[in-house]
Amino acid sequence: MANTASAAAHGSAADGETRRDFLLHSTIAFGAVGTAMAVWPLIDSMNPAADTLALSTTEFSIAGLEPGQAITVTWRGKPVFVRYRTEKEFEEARDVNVGDLPDPQTDADRVNAEHDKILIVVGVCTHLGCIPLGTKPMDPRGEFGGWFCPCHGSSYDTSGRIRKGPAPENLHVPPYAFVSDTTVRIG
């Protein structure tokens, strides 16, 4: 009888899992699922809130914008300058020798090719985060006709490139796309 019980025990071990293996695998599986259920709320809490996601894109119309006019929109809590450049401003931006610029970048790299007279830049000075002047008609625009930061004297041209002063970089160009001929989406 002892030989039969011993043979049965050996036979089941040779055929596959024992009861102990099944209990071990089940315990590991339940532990993994339980850990995942406990950790998921912590991971999910790191996602941005709905109000933050709503700020990630901004749509606006440029339908009433005429050459020489500019507007300011808000994107992610920052001002964004949108300027419909005149023919003169456009030509001045294109005729600049890029090699002379502190932060070399062509005008074509800073605008949408189909709407190259519309310039869209984040309106925050790259020196200390001030808001440059130049969007309103009576604002000083500096000697290069773009924007002027009176705090430390940074001057930007009609393409938003730094030309004079302590700012180390050009005004940043946000990611944007034309949804239609008159509607722009930033972000």
Structural account:
By secondary structure, the protein is of the alpha+beta class. The protein folds into two domains: 43 residues; 135 residues, 3-layer Sandwich (Rieske Iron-sulfur Protein). Helix content is 29%, strand content 22%. The protein has four helices and nine strands; from the N terminus they run αααβββαββββββ. The strands form three sheets. The protein has a three-stranded antiparallel sheet with strand order 1-9-8, with no helix packed on it. A hairpin with a 2-residue loop joins strand 2 and strand 3. The longest helix is centred in the N-terminal third of the chain and has 26 residues. The protein is elongated.
- How many domains? The number is 2
Compute the number of helices: 4
Q: What is the CATH architecture descriptor of the largest domain?
A: 3-layer Sandwich
Q: Strand pairing plus helix content: what structural class?
A: alpha+beta
| Number of distinct beta strands | 9
Biggest sheet statistics: 3 strands, antiparallel
Radius of gyration: 31 Å
Shape verdict: elongated
The name CATH uses for the topology of the largest domain is Rieske Iron-sulfur Protein
How are the strands of the largest sheet arranged?
A: 1-9-8
Following the backbone from N to C, one meets helices and strands in this order, namely: HHHEEEHEEEEEE
CATH superfamily of the largest domain: Rieske [2Fe-2S] iron-sulphur domain
Helix content: 25-40%
Mean pLDDT over all positions: 87
Strand content is: 15-25%
Low-confidence stretches: 4-9
* Distance, first to last CA: 79 Å
Top CATH class of the largest domain: Mainly Beta
